[in-house]
Structure formats: C-alpha cells, structure tokens
Amino acid sequence: MTALTSSSSGPRVVRTTCPYCAVQCNFDVHVENGLALKLMPTRECPVAHGTVCKKGLAALNDLRHPERLIDPLLRKNGELVPVSWAEALAYVRGALTPLLDSNPAAVGVFGSGSLTNEKTYLLGKFARLALKTPNIDYNGRYCMASASAALNRTVGYDRGLGFPLGDMAGSDLILLVGANIAETLPPIMQYLKAARDRGGLIYSIDPRATVTAKVAGQHLAVRPGSDGVLALGLIHLMKRWGKIRPTAPAHGLAEVLAQASAYPPERVAAECGVPESELLLLAKRYAEATRPLILTGRGAEQHAHGTDTVQAWLNLSYLTGHFGKPGGGYGTLTGQGNGQGGREHGQKTDQLPGARSLRDPRHRAEMAALWGCAPGDLPQPGLSAQNLLNACGQDGGIEALIVLGSNPVVSAAGAGQVTESLKALKHLIVIDFLPSETAKLATLVLPGGMWCEEEGTTTNLEGRVQRRRKAITAPGAAREDWRILCDLAAAVGRPQGFEYAGFRELQDEFFRATKGGKADYSGLSAERLDRASAQWPVRHPDGPDTPHAYAPTYPTADGWATLHVPELPAPAPARQLTLTTGRLGHHYQSGTQTRRNTALLAKNPAKNGADHGVQVHPETARDYGLRVGEEVILRTAHGQVTLPLTLNPGLRPDTVFLPFHWPEAANLLTDPGTLDPHSHMPAFKATAVTLLPAHAQVFSAARGRLEVILG
After folding, report:
1. Which residue among 40, 291, 527, 549 is least enclosed by CB atoms within 10 Å?
2. What are phi and psi of 579, to 5 degrees?
3. What is the C-alpha separation between 81 and 77, in angstroms, rounded?
C-alpha cells in the first residue's frame, strides 16, 4: 500500500483513514502550503476499495469550520474566554491536585470510541497512573458493549467480526438484526450486494423499513426489544427439524435447548408481532442455508437485556454449526470509527491494554511491570459510563470530570438528568475540536487535534489495524490530544511515564503493552502497517495476522465455549407505544461535526424540520388525530419533548422513531437508570412513550387557569 508521497516543498498527498464510521475507509488528502485542499478515495483501500460515503467525502469541511477551537477556553464570570496554555494548565493544577491528594475517585475520565488506539491506551494509563482514579469509562459503553459482553462470556474473545468483510459475499443468507448499514456503514453495502448477486438472501430484522431493508428485499418488522425472542423461536424450530449440530463441544448446550422448547412459533409470532407464516419462512431458509450469517447492530444490542439478546443469536449460530465458519456464523457491526480498538486497550473501567482484565492479578502485574509501578498501585474497576455520569455532582460522587472526544449531553441516556449532573460538577474539563454541547458546559475547554492532524492507528469492525497519518498541523494553539494528556499529567505533578520524546515512542510502547493479551498488536509497527494492514492478533513482527479469529479452541479456561441461557423480559402490552431511537444517513453520533457540516446540510435542506422530527406510521397519526408537520409531545417517565410530526409508512404502528443526533430530543426521553446487568448498556431502543398533540397541553393548561379563576 502506498503510504505517503511528498516532496520537500510544494504539493503532497497523504494517505489516511476516514474520521467517521468503523469501516475506516482510506483516502488521499491533497495538501498544499499546509492546507488540506481535497481528498480522494483510493482503490488501494483494503476495505472499501475506492468507495467513501457522503460523510467521509465532506470531512474537509469539518477542518475549516469557523467554530473550530483554536485556544484554551476558561470560564470566567460565567463565560468561556480564551486563555494561554500556561493559564489553562495552572487551572488544572489548582483544580485537580487537592482532589487527587485527598480522594482520587472524585475525579472521573470519560473517553470515546473515536480515539486512535494510542490515545485510548494513553487515556487509560493517564487515569490509572497519573490520576490514580478507578473511574474511567467511555461512550462505547453505549454502542457495542452488549455484543462485546456476550462474545467474551461465550468464547472469551471480542473481535466484532471474526472474519474479513469479503467473506460476506459467500454467504447464502444474511440476517441483519437491528442493523441499518446502508445509512450507518454505507461502504459495506458492496459486500451485501455481492452476496445477493450470487443468489444469497438478505433479511432486515427491524421495526423500521430502513434504506437497508429496501435494498435487502426481505424485511421482518419485529417489535422493538423482541429480537432475542425471535432467535429463541428459530432455535426451537432448528431443534424440531433436527438441525442442531454444534460447532464444537460447549458448556450449556442442554440448558439452552431446554429453554428454546418453551418458544413455539405461535408464541414467538405473537411476542414479536409478526405473522407466523413469515417466521416459519425465515426458519426454513435458515435451516436450508449452508453459510448463514447473523449480524447484529445497535437495534438488537441497546437494551437493558441487550447482552442476552445477542446471546440468543450467538447460541443459534453455534448450535447449528455455523459459528466461525467463513461466510457464515455471527458478528457484531461495530459503529464508531475506532469502536473496536477503543474497547480493547484500557479506557473501559474494568480493562487494561490488549483486552486484559483489571480484575486479573496476572494482568495487573504485567501492566505494572511495563509502567514501573506496583500492581497494588493500579486501582480496581470503578463506575461504568452511565453510572459515572449519573454520579457527577452528587454527594460523595464525582467532583471533577475530564471528557475527551465525547458529547454525553446529547448521547447519554436521560440526557436532561446528565446535563444537570455535569452542571453540578466543580470542574468539567473537555478536550475537543468543536464546541459540543458538553464543551459549552465546561469550566475549561482544551483545543484538541482532528483526524488528519495526528498520527496513530485505528482498528476497524473486522479487527483490521491501519495507520492514520498526519497531513496538516492543528491551527492556532490547538494541540494533538496525546500531547494534551501528557501536559495534564505534568500539571498535576505526575509526569513520570508521560515524558515521551515523540509520538513514535508512545506508539511503540502501546504495541508492547498489548503483548500477551487477547488483542495482541505486539507484532505491529508503523513500518509493517505501511506495507499492509493487519487483522489482530498479530503476535510476531514477521508472523501472520489473523483474518479468521473464531476457530476453536477458544481463549477460555478449558478451550470450550459456554452458551448461556438468555434472560429476556416479558413482552410489552399490546397497545403500548414504544419509542426507539437511531441514526440518519447524513448525520453521525451526537452530530457535533455533521450538524455543522455545510456540505451535508446543503444536501438535506429539511434539517430544521422533518429530518429530526417524530416519525410515526400513518395509521398511528390517524388514530391520534395528528397531521404532518404538527407539533406533538412525546412524554416518557424520564422527560418530554415537543417536535414536528412526520409520517413513515415503513414503521410499525406501535412504534415511534426519533433520531438521536440532536440535543433537546431523543435522549431526553431514554432511561438513565435501568442498565443491562452484564454490559451496563442503557435501554435506548425501547422506551414506553405517550404521544399527544402539542395543542392538547396548551388546552389543558388554559383549562387549569380557567378552573383557578372560577374557583
């Protein structure tokens, strides 16, 4: 692969990776006079083969945005005002040092699945070595955590896709369970189309008829939260039809099959809200397939029972002998740009680099030896993401929070409560490159680097590690994030372990830190990645990478898989309206970049109306007496919003949809307190909701005033 072409002066071209989703497409950035002038997709990309979605193609607009943060901002007299780095770091010293001396657990760290592997590693090291706090977690807890938990407890390993994307073309049946890849991971559509062109069938299992469902051609519109029940129904039928042929010996087989006996087609059809005939047709097609592939997305995973939902699909794949088979089996579609690497190298509260466990004495000793401290100096696991945010500003909780590359004011469940918690902090330090809603609440904002202003590596959804290369220098006083973390360590008087001569020293330390872990990158180097990308584990500099990760035996105590009996909730009442949240194709995550990107907004002039409104089925609107464009109220136990109504005939009549890219919308309604017991995932995808016209509230308020007057 061509890494970089340049001249000592004049124009040059730098190959790097896209700042958006977990496909991690490659493109060439054309630079002249220190400015990025254009970017071009490259056919040499090992993943996308020359395709880049509209978000990636518009990424240069993010670099040039007039709101780009270029100076530290310190809150004075209620306003954020530009200050020098010296003053900013003096604030950090005065704010954090007393807390660290008396109660390190009062300081929290909140990271991101968008960070490079090196920054992920450094953030975890910074929290545990410089701050000595147990309370670090990241926004990936809101994305792939349930699938990660299910994979780890089943086969001891979490590489979202344990196979190259190209294998998908050989699948004869692909089940997309709560996965809208046409809008969230567009370059993968080429692999789905290749499978379809070879005669494969593609099912979208989703309460909405998304763009993906229309391309797939087969759509099963299950009730939100019922995906796991559907999997149990398929296991029931596979058992009835003699299709149980486990991939390898495993613990828990008998118990899982016994549970499935209680899920005959009539029960499953009723609980999922689908015709029994459609369920039986899907089961027949799965039974007849030779290489069926199950891919889960956030629709299946973002529930208080998300781990068990994924477990049910994993069980189906394993029991029928397809798990780990090229072109078949199970995988989760990682969403964030470095969502895979971001969940491997230490920013999870219970994790050390290389996907080691912070609870394992051997793993603690290995990392302590590298970092030059005693194993006992490393804190035990602390609060996971949602609990960390909920504890902010509370008595005996978090008093200071450092946020890097995340916007929980928009992305966290119960965003209204989270916002109030962040406002109650003594100190909120945000490192970012644009003024997110979270940054606007900060006591200190530090201007960080953007994607082509830094070096590093990212790991895509198939475990493929690629180089991100620096093309330009950050503007003004903005600094690369890794340098900022080292500055913060020095500011609190703990620079030991953070005095790197340059980025390459940090990168080489990161690769060494993964040696012997499940996610072993120790055979990698910048030079090797210049020659070709590699799928982990890569254990030796001259050794092979691992395109297929899920062949038995597994990295468990005895080499066997362990299938668990899923614990799924009772079905929702038949007439209950359920709110589900999701993405739109021209936006990304909390929208910090895409809501400002002029190229993307120009293609979607309805941004301020329909595209972030409440979507309901036409029958639902008719039943409630609502009209298109009318302001409606959505109310849950956790909050209330008023938004314009739009119609979506591809949505289930018992389901309401809201995109989550905007503040003052979807996550004001979601539950911040009920979490998956295994992954600590909030229930983003299924919240009981009340729908009513906005004028009903006005009428009610007016009637109340009238009653007071008459009284």
Report:
1. 527
2. -85, 130
3. 9
Task: List, edge to edge, every strand of the sheet that includes 79-82.
Answer: 79-82, 73-76, 444-447, 427-432, 400-404, 107-111, 136-138
CA distance 519 to 536: 6
- Region label for 655, one of left (φ > 0), alpha (ψ between -120 and 50) or beta (otherwise): beta
| Geometric angle at alpha carbon 52, from 48 and 58, rounded to 5° | 160
Residue 564 tokens, joined: 């668990």
Q: How far apart are CA 173 and CA 180, in angstroms?
A: 17
In angstroms, the CA 653 to CA 622 distance is 10
What type of residue is 196?
R
How far CA 183 is from CA of 140, 219, 478, 572, 586, in Å, comes to 19, 16, 32, 28, 8
CA angle 205, 209, 214 (to 5 degrees): 95
Helices (H), ranges, 241-305: 253-260, 265-272, 276-288, 298-301
- The DSSP string of 607-665 is GGTGGGSEEE-HHHHHHTT--TT-EEEEEETTEEEEEEEEE-TTB-TTEEEEESSSSSS
Q: Give SS3 for 707.
A: helix
User: What is the residue whose two structure tokens read 């969502």?
Assistant: 339
Check residue 7 and give its pLDDT.
46
Sign of torsion, CA 319 323 329 331? Answer: positive
CA-based nearest residue to 180, from 144, 209, 217: 209
With contact defined as beta carbons under 8 Å apart, do 131 and 123 qualify? no
Of all residues in the chain, what percent are helix, strand and coil, respectively (each to 5)? 35, 20, 45
Amino acid 427 reads H
pTM of the model: 0.94
Cβ atoms 261, 236 nearer than 8 A: yes
What contacts 522, CB < 8 A, 6 or more positions away?
Answer: 511, 512, 514, 515, 516, 538, 539, 540
Q: Which sign does the torsion angle of CA 594, 671, 658, 297 carry?
A: positive
If you count them, how many residues does the chain have? 711
| Location of structure tokens 């450094």 | 122
| Residue 129 DSSP code | I
The answer to whether 117 and 145 have CB atoms below 8 angstroms apart is no
Q: What is the pLDDT of residue 130?
A: 98
> What residues contact residue 527 under an 8 Å CB cut-off, 6+ apart?
none
pLDDT tops 70 at residue 217: yes
pLDDT in tens, 612-630: 789 999 999 999 999 998 9
Cis check: omega of the bond before 537, within 30 degrees of 0? yes
Element containing residue 154 per DSSP (H, E): helix 145-155
Beta strands per DSSP E along 129-278? 136-138, 173-177, 201-205, 217-220, 250-251
Residue 415 has pLDDT above 80, yes or no: yes
SS3 for 262?
coil
**Residues 36 and 27: beta-carbon distance below 8 Å:** no
Integer Cα distance of 46 and 303 in angstroms = 33
The residue to which tokens 């002998």 are assigned: 321
Reported as a single tens digit per residue, the pLDDT across 122-176 is 999 999 999 999 999 999 999 989 999 999 999 999 999 999 999 999 999 999 9
The answer to whether the CB of 30 falls within 8 A of the CB of 36 is yes
Residue type for 50, please?
G
Residue 474's SS3 state is coil
**Residue of 648, 645, 615, 614 whose CA lies nearest to 630:** 645
Cβ atoms < 10 Å from Cβ of 601:
17
- What pLDDT score does 18 carry? 93
